[in-house]
Amino acid sequence: MKYASTVLDLIGNTPLVKLNRVTDGIKATVLVKLEYLNPGGSIKDRIALKMVERAEESGQLKPGGTIVEPTSGNTGVGLAMVGQLKGYDTIFVTPDKVGEEKRDVLRAYGAKVVVTPTAVAPDSPQSYYGVSDRLVTEIDGAYKPDQFSNPGAPDSHFETTGPEIWNDTEGKLTHAVISAGTGGTITGTGRYLKQISADRASGPVKIIAADPDGSVYSGGTGRPYFVEGVGEDMWPGNYDPSVPDVVEPVTDAESFEMTRRLAKEEGLLLGGSSGMAVVAALRVAKDLGEDDVVVVIAPDGGRGYLAKIFNDQWMLDQGFTTDEYSALDFIGAA
Ligand code: PMP
Fold it and tell me: Which residues form the Tryptophan synthase beta chain-like PALP domain (predicted)?
């Protein structure tokens, strides 16, 4: 019989799929790595498992322990799932600007969610960093993974994401396009791909960071943008700036237009950071030849963005355009 012993065995080994329509006019092969096919729905399952395993090995997390992390997004889901299977309590601290649906997902896995006010300074004891730090000191056996600085995060990508891409492309990939949030994905995957291809006749794999226009990685101040999970207003410990060869800034409008096109033209319902990375990939690919192979990491799926990127009214309210049909298109009077 073929089955996984637990859901944790289903983390990783995600497939690559070729883009066929949005790549019109491009000679290079562009492949997308579908991380939404991880059991928790995103690439963050990988780091959650690694960070928890490391903490068990080092003794920072003991049976009956509690995982505390300030996160509302994909890392929370990964940690909630891993914690639930391994018998740890999980507490997530989220600012009140985070939508109720995201908190409900965490609660569905049995996590406890603490909500903190957004309108306080980051160093205030009421901020979500402040509250999570206090919980870690006050709860017996509590452990905070801290995805921004935990070396287990990039290491998980060095050990799994990078080798999967290299093996599935049989060492033929020439470029990898990776979005950066905490930096763990690009640092670990990029380091592996550069190292393994260092002595290749055709030269090492080029690593391209996809970054929301305005974020610090592409020279911005961290000014607000809408695309979620990527870009920063500070430099996290897990981002190694020597890994990317190029950083491509992408605007929200470009990211969202591509995210919607991927669903309509390629049948791929992906999150906004995936659309952003595809925009950067196509920019790079347009100057490449038919022997070039570009791999783009798509960190999560589109289900979590139905009320935003895939909602025409939300898009128009934020000043983005949509490709809504007018009634005239259907009655042929246009
Ligand atoms: N896309 C999404 C949707 C994410 O949640 C994250 C994680 N913050 C990323 C991309 C970036 O991954 P990393 O933190 O490893 O840079």
Answer: 8-300
pLDDT per residue over 101-141, tens digit each? 889 999 999 999 999 887 888 788 888 888 999 999 999 99
What is the rounded distance in angstroms from the CA atom of residue 83 to the CA atom of residue 60? 14
Residues with catalytic roles: 44
Question: Is residue 3 classed exposed, middle or buried when 0-12, 13-18 and 19+ CB atoms within 10 A define those classes?
Answer: exposed
Which H or E run contains 133? helix 128-138
What band does 27 get if pLDDT is binned at 50, 70 and 90? very high
Ligand 1 neighbour 181 (Cβ under 6 A)? yes
Beta pairing partners, 92: 69, 113
CA-nearest residue for atom 2, ligand 1, is: 229
Q: What are the structure tokens assigned to 13, written together?
A: 């080994």
45 CB near ligand 1 (under 6 Å): no
Q: What is the pLDDT of residue 329?
A: 67
Which of 32, 35, 42, 43 for mutating ligand 1's site (highest number of atoms within 8 Å of CB)? 43
Q: Return the pLDDT at 58.
A: 97
d(CA 205, CA 173): 7
Strand pairing category for 293-298 and 246-250: unpaired
Residue 190's nearest CA partner among 150, 244, 231 is 244
Cβ of residue 184 lying under 6 Å from some atom of ligand 1: yes
Ligand 1 centroid to 273 CA: how many Å? 8
- Cα distances (angstroms) measured from residue 137 to each of 79, 141, 265: 19, 9, 50
Compute, in degrees rounded to 10, the torsion defined by CA atoms 208, 269, 181, 200.
-30
Q: What is the pLDDT of residue 129?
A: 84
What number is the average pLDDT over the span 192-217? 97
